[in-house]
Design goal:
Helix content is about 35%, strand content about 15%. It has 26 helices and 30 strands. A hairpin with a 5-residue loop joins strand 4 and strand 5.
Length: about 950
């Protein structure tokens, strides 16, 4: 069944600049060849699929932009590049998704599916677009619906069901799956081209997961061996799934409807069909899992950065006072932080020990980052390539993981229908094709619909079962530690339990040449990682004059496949029958996530991850000596296994009045690795709105969607910090005309709701545009002016390495960069809030150790704010929004806009900014089995 076609390399394939020229010389031959390729799709059947096992009563909905179809033939890619035409179902979910930003205020339960898909099981007969028996098999059928082209896979055997899942995945995401199996092995540039974005991506992941082929195979072997019958079933499912993928590869190759990116990147010849699309194997899926786990489910890291900032604080204030200042900025357990489990139950983890043991803080100025890239040639040696390497290293080694994702779940006690309601989903960025894909899978022991990461869709990973739904947000608790290994003999030997032991060298050599898809000049380099029993080497330093290497060890290292059992359980209707079963399944997921559940009667929450049990006295915030006394309890370096905290110690709950999560603090006394869990967090945007709904009672699906959408347009700084900034400024009459005018605009914006939203649908102009511009310019200026004089430049700079000052929509941030939607996760808003309240003499729980704005003087603080406000007000839109490869300088709306970043050959238009999940469910079950 020749379907659409995936897009091409990572982040910024240069198709937009090169393809028009290519069309001049080759378009006629290619278009004819592509458009006349033999089609094997079966005609649409007249009958739909049954849905007797669906207990949602038509009240389950979902959405995943831009569209289900992530494959495109060469002809379709060329037509898209030349004329903007879209393959079927390539972007039909993008419009409804985007329209919610201006349409949510009038939303009713009856109009929810104007902006979402009906996520009921099955396909009504009049909505069947196509039916096929993949590879002619009699034990599985793939039905696609007319509206979105989602595959509904129904099998009579377990093998056939999983074969169909693999076949459908390849139909919808083959190129993307191929890209990411190469990312997971650090081989992207050799496969897809040497664009700087491709270099950065493979470097980011190879640094944290430098696996050999033997490592990848061992991980699946171990996951199977330790899980009995479920492990054996998982392996059988994976093999059937791979058979389905490979059957589609063979069919699309012989039928010449494979993704056109294989031609554009030089892997296939459009005329002779020469070239090979490599079959997938089990280790490819482990490589894929390592990428996804590293992106979204590996909390921790940053211990060396923490040590550097602690030393800077102690140098500024002395050891005792400096430590107190550091701890106040760290906010390990801030009493004002918004919580997911807010019933008062405590789950201690990651607390500061009374008497820290084994700390290995570096000598001041001795820390250097371990190089990853060697032997650069050609374009790999450019300044841009070297800058990309530095950015990738910072992203890989810091604790500020891109958490993303949110959840709003309300107990049936507070809803109009008496049943729980949930609006939740992962915020995985925006790509074309999307990293996730939709599917329904029905077969022996499997009954689910929802989203899965492409290439890992043997099970639904986030979605619904027969009478329950589940979703996740990134949690970020610390499962990564840094060890100082003392060097001996030379820089590549270290002491392990008193024996001088050689480090293991792992290398990946990559080379690339220009292609039609990526014109980056020829180049090459070698990525080299030195591995120890305590993990890969990430930094070098001296400690008390001794030469050391700092390594990074995470509990999921060498265990990227372990979570497969938890997902298998979530898809099994015979396993999950209630909230406790759901929590049990989530306990089998070793990545760091917050998991949420709703059925017709109950809600539930569980925080997953293999949290290592640390030695007594070890402070996980800082590096410790690589010695037996400070290792994880019962740690086995051969398998990287240890004792983990029991399920009862993980934050969990059943039937709380409501749950919210936007990567905020999970529960009292539970410390996350990233900084910024303080008095102002984007989680407050959800908590404030849901709390009001629950207090009023009678919550409906539409009301909960409106709460999510409203929070998704809010500027956190404007809603929760700007009123206090204005309170300081207006504590005396504002006589300066420039400042007074700016204050008036900002106050009007706050009164209007502090949203970043268009004047009307499609206007591409913001309401309160001047106020938005002023705050965007003012925030970094005011933070520096407020804190740097007191902290000193060294400590201020060190703290900004721990926690970025700002994360506005238009700022380039994180691995996805600008135009990524997700915003306001990391920033200094809590520090500003607490500091200003201290200046104003208002109560502050868990305040900063010192008062910084104006040295604690209200008058001096006010002068500082007015001075920086005047500076900001005078900056033009072109200065605040300087333009990039997507937008002209000064285009405020465009600077914020969301771009579906091309991972293939099909491009899509920009949409207005929203801060919401990429895949999202709206559910309210009316009955239960």
């Amino acid at each position: 069944m020749p379907r659409r076609t995936p897009r091409t390399t990572l982040d910024r394939l240069r198709t937009s600049r090169r393809l028009p020229g290519f069309l001049k010389t080759a378009s006629i031959c290619v278009l004819v060849a592509g458009l006349l390729s033999p089609l094997t799709q079966t005609a649409a059947a007249a009958t739909g699929t049954a849905a007797a096992n669906d207990y949602c009563g038509g009240r389950c909905s979902d959405i995943l932009p831009p569209g289900e179809n992530g494959n495109a033939t060469l002809a379709q890619i060329l037509l898209n590049q030349a004329f903007g035409t879209q393959p079927a179902h390539a972007e039909d979910q993008l419009g409804p998704y985007a329209d919610l930003a201006t349409g949510y205020k009038g939303l009713t339960d009856a109009t929810v599916n104007t902006f979402f898909n009906d996520a009921s099981f099955g396909v009504p007969a009049d909505q069947v677009a196509s039916t096929e028996k993949p590879a002619g098999r009699s034990d599985v059928t793939i039905v696609r619906d007319k509206k979105a082209g989602v595959p509904h896979i129904t099998g009579t055997t377990r093998y056939g069901t999983e074969f169909g899942a693999g076949y459908a995945a390849a139909e919808d995401r083959l190129w993307l799956m191929d890209v990411f199996r190469h990312v997971g092995r650090g081989r992207l540039t050799s496969f897809a081209g040497g664009a700087p974005a491709n270099q950065g991506l493979e470097q980011q992941f190879y640094r944290n997961a430098p696996y050999t082929e033997a490592d990848l195979q061992a991980q699946i072997d171990n996951a199977v061996a330790k899980n009995g019958a479920r492990g054996q079933q998982a392996l059988a499912d994976v093999k059937a799934y791979l058979d389905g993928i490979n059957a589609y590869i063979d069919a699309s190759d012989s039928g010449r409807y494979f993704p056109g990116e294989y031609v554009l990147t030089g892997h296939k010849d459009s005329i002779t069909n020469a070239g090979t699309i490599e079959h997938f194997k089990v280790t490819d899926l482990v490589a894929l899992a390592s990428v996804i786990g590293s992106l979204f489910g590996s909390g921790g890291g940053g211990e060396v950065d923490n040590a550097v900032s602690l030393l800077a604080a102690q140098a500024r204030y002395g050891v005792e006072e400096g430590t107190r200042v550091w701890e106040s900025f760290r906010e390990r357990n801030d009493p004002e932080a918004v919580l997911t489990v807010h019933d008062g139950e405590s789950f201690p983890y990651g607390a500061k020990p009374a008497d820290a043991q084994g700390q290995a803080l570096p000598d001041t100025g001795s820390v250097t980052r371990e190089p990853l890239v060697y032997d650069r040639t050609g374009s790999a040696g450019t300044a841009a390539a070297k800058s990309t390497t530095a950015t990738a290293a910072k992203t890989a080694l810091g604790s500020a993981r891109r958490g993303m994702s949110n959840a709003l779940v309300v107990s049936g006690k507070h809803t109009a229908g008496g049943h729980p309601i949930a609006v939740f989903g992962p915020q995985t960025g925006y790509f074309a094709p999307q990293l996730l894909m939709l599917q329904e899978i029905q077969g022996p022991g499997l009954s689910a619909r929802g989203a899965s990461f492409a290439g890992l869709s043997m099970y639904v990973e986030l979605g619904r079962g027969q009478d329950y739904s589940w979703s996740a947000t990134t949690s970020g608790q610390d499962i990564i530690d840094s060890y100082a290994v003392e060097l001996c003999q030379d820089d590549y030997h270290y002491l392990y339990h008193g024996t001088c032991t050689p480090m293991e060298k792992v290398e990946q050599k990559n080379a690339w040449k220009p292609t039609t898809a990526d014109g980056t000049a020829e180049g090459s380099y070698t990525m080299r990682v030195w591995r120890t029993r305590y993990g890969p080497v990430e930094y070098r330093a001296t400690v008390g004059g001794k030469k050391v290497a700092y390594t990074t060890l995470r509990s999921s290292y060498l265990h990227e496949a372990d979570s497969i059992i938890g997902f298998q359980m979530l898809n099994d209707p015979d396993y999950v029958k209630g909230p406790q079963d759901f929590q049990s399944a989530a306990q089998h997921i070793n990545y760091t996530f917050n998991w949420f559940y709703a059925d017709s009667q109950h809600t539930a929450y569980y925080n997953s991850g293999d949290n290592p049990v640390r030695a007594s006295g070890v402070d996980s915030e800082f590096p410790v000596w690589a010695q037996p006394a400070y290792e994880w309890r019962n740690w086995d370096p051969a398998t990287n296994t240890a004792d983990y905290t029991p399920a009862s110690a993980h934050p969990h709950s059943v039937d709380q009045d409501y749950y919210v999560s936007w990567n905020n603090k999970q529960a009292e006394d539970y410390t996350t690795a990233s900084w910024g869990d303080g008095s102002v967090h984007r989680g407050n945007l959800l908590d404030d709105r849901v709390k009001k709904l629950v207090a009023a009672g009678g919550v409906t699906r539409a009301e909960l969607v409106r709460a999510m959408a409203d929070a998704g347009l809010a500027d956190l700084r404007a809603e929760d910090v700007l009123p206090r900034l204005l309170k300081v400024i207006t504590s005396s009459p504002v006589t300066d005309s420039t400042a007074a005018a700016a204050v008036g605009k900002l106050q009007a914006w706050v009164t209007a709701g502090a949203k970043r939203t268009e004047t009307s649908a499609g206007s591409r102009k913001y309401a309160d545009a001047d106020a938005v511009r002023i705050l965007d310019a003012w925030w970094p200026l005011l933070v520096r002016a407020e804190f740097e004089p007191g902290l000193g430049s060294d400590l201020y700079t060190a703290f900004t390495s721990n926690l970025p000052v700002d994360e506005a929509p238009s700022a380039g941030h994180g691995p996805t960069g600008s135009h990524a939607g997700s915003s306001f996760q990391y920033g200094w808003w809590s520090y500003v809030d607490k500091d200003l309240r201290a200046v104003l003499g208002e109560p502050v729980r868990g305040g900063l150790a010192r008062t910084y704005c104006g040295g604690g003087s209200l008058t001096a603080c006010r002068d500082t704010l007015i001075s920086t406000l005047k500076d900001a007000a005078g900056r033009t839109a072109a200065q605040v929004y300087p333009g990039d490869d997507q937008c002209a300088a000064g285009d405020q709306w465009c600077a914020d806009s969301i771009v579906q970043r091309t991972l293939g050959g099909i491009k899509h238009g920009r949409i207005s900014w929203q801060n919401r999940p990429t895949f999202q469910q709206v559910v309210e079950y009316t009955s239960h089995r």
